[in-house]
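Need the bound structure for fe (ii) ion, inputs here:
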Amino acid sequence: MPQWSHALSVRNARLDEQHIVLIEMSKELIALVKRAPPTDAPIREALREFADYARRHDELEEGLLAANGCPTLDEHRAIHRLAEAELERWVRAAASESIDRKALVNCFEVWMAHHLTETDMPVKAYMHD
Ligand SMILES: [Fe+2]
Ligand SMILES: [Fe+2]
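Answer from helper R.:
Posting the output first, comments after.
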């Protein structure tokens, strides 16, 4: 399970804190799924919370990248929109059908392993306040 460390800092305290929270929320969601709750309701709640927090994080991050003239802002925005759309699909699935819990865990593990290192770290120079 990935662990946040100072090597993953983007040199912005607000964004670092949000990344830590997002990693913790992901771990909690995975732990929840592994406890095998009898219904999807608690998973749906956790997904909803994660999706809301992630959207606010993406907004703040994109605002800073724009203000600092990040040359790859459009690509970064596109990656955020894709991730948000995937989360929305999970939220909807959890509301209407029984979700594929194994695939959900996999999706969050992949997100944790790649979001920070491959999407955010390369543009941390444009994330200052
Ligand atoms: Fe990002
Ligand atoms: Fe981020």
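Comments: The first helix runs from residue 13 to 34. The pocket of fe (ii) ion (ligand 2) is lined by residues 19, 57, 61, 120 (CB under 6 Å).
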